[in-house]
Amino acid sequence: MYGLEKNKNKFNFDLEVELKENPEKAKEIFAKIENYIKELKNLIKKGGKKEELDQWGVLLNGYLSLQKVLNKSIKA
What we know:
Elements: H1 14-21, H2 23-46, H3 50-75
Helix pairs in contact: 1-2, 2-3
């Protein structure tokens, strides 16, 4: 796809490289993400306007996806 299949070298994003070089920063980022996820879950449980709940749901899905991607990139 987009010419990357011809290149045998694995492509690494800047964030991946930075987190692999500095594990302390990775732990800090994971902690922040966990806090954001907890806060959003609490806001959704409390309820609110439909528009707000939709926005919080989108943010929650985004943070959960970011968490999965970072976990995979650290383990690889």
